[in-house]
Amino acid sequence: MIGVLATLAADLSRAKRTRQDKEHNTRRQLYADYLAALARTRNNLRLAARSAHTRRTSPQGHRAFKEGNAYELRYQVALISPAPVIEASTAAFRALRDLRDLIEEGALHTDHSYLDLRDNWEERFAELRTAMRETSTTRAPHRRS
Known about the structure:
Distance between the termini: 29 Å
Shape: elongated
Radius of gyration: 21 Å
């Protein structure tokens, strides 16, 4: 009886560890995909801000967001992340959206308002990376259903 219970306990422990490892790897991959989407969106916005045609208020910013896929991944991050990552994600996303709106109004990459919002975006993006790194290096405690 003791042998059976010990084997059962070991199997349960192994299954729990396997599930936690899978959740950890899924979260880490989603974080990487989301950061890449934000960076892709930011790069597209940078190109729009450098365009001589931007002064004519164009939808380049909205196109950059659509092509970047950040919206969809942002919601996935919000579903599986702890509060510090969600808060940092929201702040970074809003900073990027503010930059988009300014570009849509015709700002160029040399304008002071653009430079200020760009710096704000970079700070929020760094905070997001830090929050993600902190939660991806530690395993989340087991959640009870």
